[in-house]
Specification:
Elements (H helix, E strand, L loop, with lengths): L20 H36 L8 H13 L9 H16 L1 H21 L6 E4 L6 H9 L4 E2 L3 H5 L3 H11 L2 H14 L2 H6 L12 H4 L12 H7 L10 H24 L8 E6 L5 H7 L4 E6 L2 H14 L11 H23 L6 E6 H6 L1 H13 L33 H7 L1 H8 L3
Parallel strand pairs: 1-3, 1-4, 2-3, 4-5
Helix pairs in contact: 1-3, 1-4, 2-3, 11-15, 12-13, 14-15
């Protein structure tokens, strides 16, 4: 399906800023100074962290030693091609790993503080019949999630809560962030930090729900995989199939992280919605964790949105290219992205069709992207009927999608420009393509 070498920059695309030698040296020196400070500051926290591990076990929001060793080894030895991984990038990745290691006790102690303050209440909280939306990237899943999260009976962690999963922090910030003026300023500042090309493709809002996978990948080391070449990305940034070294991460760590955040979200919401029955809702791409979540929550409802492979693959590759990147590493090379996404998203299509087609008693609901776009009212009626057992759709759900620019992106390569044959892709995924075309 890959037919040619992918050009790193086309004439129509914005220039990618590169870091020169002098600025690179300055950044290395600054990073080394910061790591020196972290070594000193983290010492007492390591003692507290060790004590917490003895009492509560290793928290699910920190990487384990074997993952650190794996990534240290990859940083030294991995040999991606077209382009190669530079010596500067390897050194910078090594410093990022050191920084990640030195921040382990801070994240761990922050997690343990919740257990100390609210452990009994969290363990007593029940997560009943959660609604779990597991859908491929660029399938329209975020838009459906944002229609659903406005339902007063559904409780979903917002982006800030996903990235800062500490109940004590949510409670401290509640009064301050409840003011509309503060929220608007926070939105504006966070949006300003994003590349404009990324904002074009994703409506970022820290106070609304977003892809839950960030709670796992940002705390562990998988977010570094795209910077280590396509093969590492295929193994560690694959939401459909987990490599042997990632089995524990997805089947145990991820489930423990999800369950605790679910309890925190429900407990936090009950402070202001005491009279309303609450049901946990979460959205992400974590298909390789679906079976483990089904075992954890036998009464869960699983929802997906399926979209034709060709436009979704195209959108996914362009979206990942314009995502925020470390200036010292730069955006992930097009050739790496194309090779990795072609493999991981093909895996996703095949596993998704198999898993959502199983007849094993689990409650599964499939929504087709085309139906979602063309008939929002009918699609949401199906979601509420099949997933939530309600015959009527709440008034807050719109009957038509809000207007949004979905063309004229600054970076928008076609599949041909990415070296992908759309014909061969559709042949390879004929069964999935037909599944997307079936009547609901």
């Amino acid at each position: 399906m890959l037919n040619s070498v992918v050009e790193e920059r086309l004439p129509s695309e914005p220039e990618v800023r590169t870091i020169g030698f002098s600025e690179s040296c300055f950044r290395f020196i600054l990073k080394l100074l910061m790591l020196t400070v972290l070594v000193v500051v983290s010492l007492p926290f390591w003692l507290l962290y060790a004590l917490g591990c003895l009492i509560w076990g290793i928290p699910p929001n920190v990487p384990k030693g074997r993952q650190f060793l794996r990534y240290v080894g990859l940083t030294r030895t991995v040999q991606p091609q077209q382009p190669e991984l530079s010596f500067r990038s390897r050194c910078w990745l090594a410093l990022k790993l050191a920084e990640k290691f030195l921040t382990v006790p801070f994240h761990g102690c922050a997690w343990f503080l919740d257990e100390l303050l609210y452990g009994g209440r969290l363990s007593g909280e029940s997560v009943e019949a959660p609604l779990i939306e597991i859908s491929a990237g660029r399938s329209g899943s975020t838009q459906i999630a944002r229609y659903l999260e406005s339902d007063p009976e559904l409780v979903a962690p917002n982006l800030l809560q996903i990235m800062i999963p500490y109940l004590w922090a949510w409670k401290l910030a509640r009064r301050f962030l409840n003011r509309d003026s503060v929220r608007e300023k926070a939105r504006a500042k966070i949006t300003a930090m994003m590349p404009p090309e990324a904002v074009e493709r994703h409506e970022l809002d820290p106070f609304r729900t977003d892809t839950f996978d960030g709670a796992l990948y940002s705390f562990h080391l998988n977010h570094l995989a795209p910077s280590l070449g396509p093969q590492t990305m295929i193994e560690d940034f694959n939401f459909a199939k987990s490599a042997a070294h990632n089995k524990e991460l997805w089947e145990e760590t991820f489930v423990a992280l999800t369950d605790r955040i679910a309890r925190k979200t429900l407990l936090f919401a009950r402070d202001t919605r005491e009279e309303t029955p609450l049901r946990f809702f979460v959205k992400g791409h974590f298909l390789c964790g679906a079976e483990a979540l089904k075992r954890k929550y036998p009464d869960a409802v699983f929802l997906t949105v399926i979209r034709e492979p060709a436009p979704r693959f195209k959108s996914a590759i362009n979206y990942l290219r314009v995502n925020p990147s470390d200036p010292m590493l730069g955006p992930v090379p097009w050739s790496w992205l194309t090779k990795a996404i072609l493999r991981t998203e093909t895996d996703y299509c095949e596993v998704e069709k198999e898993w959502f087609g199983k007849q094993d008693g689990a409650n599964r609901c499939v929504i087709r992207f085309a139906s979602f776009v063309e008939d929002l009212e009918g699609t949401m009626a199906k979601v509420y009927r099949d997933c939530l057992g309600r015959d009527t759709v709440p008034r807050h759900v719109p009957t038509a999608h809000p207007l949004r620019e979905r063309q004229h992106y600054s970076v928008d390569r076609s599949l041909a420009e990415l070296g992908i044959s759309e014909t061969e892709l559709n042949v390879r995924l004929t069964a999935y393509h037909e599944w997307c075309q079936q009547d609901s």
